[in-house]
Structures are given as structure tokens and as C-alpha cells.
Amino acid sequence: FDEMFDDMMRPMHSMEKALYGKHARTIMKTDVRETDNSYEVDIDLPGFKKDEVNLQLEDGYLTVSAAKGLDKDEKKKGRYIRQERYAGSMSRSFYVGEGLEPKDIRAKFENGILQLSIPKSAPKQLPKTTAIAIE
Fold first, then answer.
1. Measured between alpha carbons, how far apart are the two ends of the chain, in Å?
2. What is the dihedral angle through the alpha carbons of 99, 101, 107, 113, rounded to the nearest 10 degrees?
3. Where does the chain show beta strands of DSSP type E?
4. For residue 39, what are the β-bridge partners?
5. Position 68 confidence tier, pLDDT thresholds 50, 70, 90
6. Which of 21-25, 78-82, 101-105 has the lowest mean pLDDT?
7. How far from 121 is each of 2, 26, 92, CA to CA, in Å?
8. SS (HEC) of 8-21
9. What is the pTM of this model?
10. In degrees, to the nearest 5, what angle opens at C-alpha 114 toward C-alphas 62 and 119?
11. 11-67 tens-digit pLDDT
């Protein structure tokens, strides 16, 4: 309750900083489930639209980023007493392995939740013989 009271007393420009600062980890809440063949990832992105979310796979890292802006041209009557909606971007990266290609990962965005299905990499088969020939 003390935190809520502190937030009400804090100037509005510092609220955005707090949102992306110490509270940034609460924005992209993520659940990861392991199945026999894949990892199922659910990422909360409330308030974002599908076209505001981007996925990149590079060097074994899957990066999820989301960016949004407020419509500054929209005219609304009245005076704001409190304005907490934000504009900005955020991202989060996950190591998924070197052997994956973008076509291997399935993604679905519905009701503010990004759902990813990432196949498990096949374990590298070690040779049955472990003897090393000496020259």
C-alpha cells in the first residue's frame, strides 16, 4: 500500500522511468513449459497489437521485442488528472540453441499473449566407438 501512495505522490514524468526501470521485469511475464518435443512459451504483452510485436532469431538467441506509441494527434476533451498509458519499447532474449531456423519456431498472438512453440534440438549423436587411433 505504501508503494501505491508513493506512486500517487511521484511526479508524472518519473512514473514512466519507474515503469521501465525497476518494474520492467513485470511487463513481459513469461511462462516456459517443456514437453517431449518442444518448449512452449507464453509471454504476456497486454495492450500490444500483433503488428507491434517482433521476433528475431540470431546466433541461437530468440529476441522478442514490442514497441508502441500513443496517438498524439487524437484530440480528447477535458483535462487529464492522471495519465499512465505509456509509449516505448521493450525486449527480452532467450537462448534457444544454434541449430534452429526461423521456420522451425511457431508463433501465435492472441488476446495480448504471444505463444511460441520452439522445437527441442535433436541431441548430437556421439559415435559408438570412442577409441582414438595413434599415428
1. 74
2. 60
3. 30-34, 38-44, 53-58, 61-68, 88-95, 106-110, 113-119
4. 34, 118
5. confident
6. 21-25
7. 47, 29, 21
8. HHCCHHHHHHHHHC
9. 0.66
10. 50
11. 444 444 444 455 455 578 999 999 999 999 999 998 889 999 999 999 889 999 998
